[in-house]
Amino acid sequence: MKILSIESSCDETACAIVEDGRKIISSVVATQIGEHKLYGGVVPEIASRRHCENIVGVCEEALEKAEMTPQDCDAVAVTYAPGLIGALLVGVSFAKSLALSLDKPLIPVHHIKGHIAANYIAHSDLEPPYLCLVASGGHSHIIKVKSYTEFETIGKTLDDAAGEAFDKAARSMGFPYPGGIYIDKAAKKGNPARYKLPIPKTENLYDFSFSGLKTAVINLVHNSAQKGEAIDVNDLAASFQHTVCEILSSKFIKSALDNGYKTVALAGGVAANSGLRDCLAKQAEIHNLKLYIPPISLCGDNAAMIGSQAYYEYLSGNISDSALNAVASLKLS
Ligand code: KG4
Ligand code: ZN
């Protein structure tokens, strides 16, 4: 089954054609980062406008690369939640019209479920049940993946998401938006033990909290500037990244062991972080857990992951019609 899938929940307009949930036939991502960078973050109004301008061309390119016509696709899938409402609406409206005009099924996909499914494309042997850590710009969740379409969140962030903390800490260090990748690069040259940063405590041990850590970095930079003291940006990036990775991996590994999981997976934009990948790989080996991580190309927002999850949604009968609407905020289950 070949599914044409669309993703437009934030600042990437993407279309992919995915076969049977596991094989990418083509995948196109048009990023708007260059423009949002000018404002230090995503401007929702600009994001919606660029999605409108890009969506037809992006879908045409995906079809062209796949050497397919729209009629060759068996279904149309789209991210309908969560995300920026105006941005989501562009993808949803386009997908509804396309499915209607082609007389093909329309499959709604939750963005976070898509991030998790990126692992199915990369790892043909991965099957539920397993425990997944999803860390992105908007989410930090520990999720029991009970089946391809049944999920239970057992831990989440109480304030900032991990990616958000990366981006805000990066901004205070003078890096452009989105700063996660710049911290990752700088951290490779720095000393992670140089700056002591706070590790937050949460009532539920599987929950996260990153706002105190982010504020500690911002205060450290401001206070040093006021005293005329220089900050070593590489050391601060390394210290911050080390602390975030410690928090994410220690809670995730604990939750996996407490809940008897032998298989674990990582997903979301922050899964591209080299420190987190290394730290989790080491911890997984120590605790004899089989760890799945998507390739960096599938960590950030893309439509292939949406096409993968869409296949399993279709098999479980989750098909929508023209009444489908975009939803800005929606729990996994
Ligand atoms: O999943 P994603 O592309 O979009 C959302 O659904 O939010 O995640 C974007 C986030 C941004 O905060 C970005 O800075 C972060 O992922 N990110 C990274 C790295 N690459 C992307 N964070 C840390 N290290 C990286 N290498
Ligand atoms: Zn995302």
Provide a short characterization of the protein structure.
By secondary structure, the protein is of the alpha/beta class.
Can you put this structure into words, describing what you see?
The longest helix has 26 residues, at 233-258. A hairpin with a 4-residue loop joins strand 1 and strand 2 (12-19). The chain is an alpha/beta fold. The strands form 2 sheets. The chain has a 5-stranded mixed β-sheet with strand order 3-2-1-4-5, sandwiched between helices. Helix 8 (233-258) packs parallel to helix 9 (274-286). It has helices at 33-37, 44-66, 85-102, 111-122, 162-172, 180-187, 211-227, 233-258, 274-286, 304-315, and strands at residues 2-7, 12-19, 23-31, 75-81, 106-110, 130-135, 140-145, 151-156, 263-267, 290-292. The protein contains 10 helices and 10 strands. 44% of the residues lie in helices and 18% in strands. 52% of the residues are buried. The chain has 2 domains: 2-116 and 298-315, Nucleotidyltransferase, domain 5 (2-Layer Sandwich), CATH 3.30.420.40; 126-293, Nucleotidyltransferase, domain 5. Bound molecules: 5'-O-[(R)-(carboxyoxy)(hydroxy)phosphoryl]adenosine and zinc ion (ZN). The site of 5'-O-[(R)-(carboxyoxy)(hydroxy)phosphoryl]adenosine (KG4) has 19 residues, from helix 5 and helix 6.
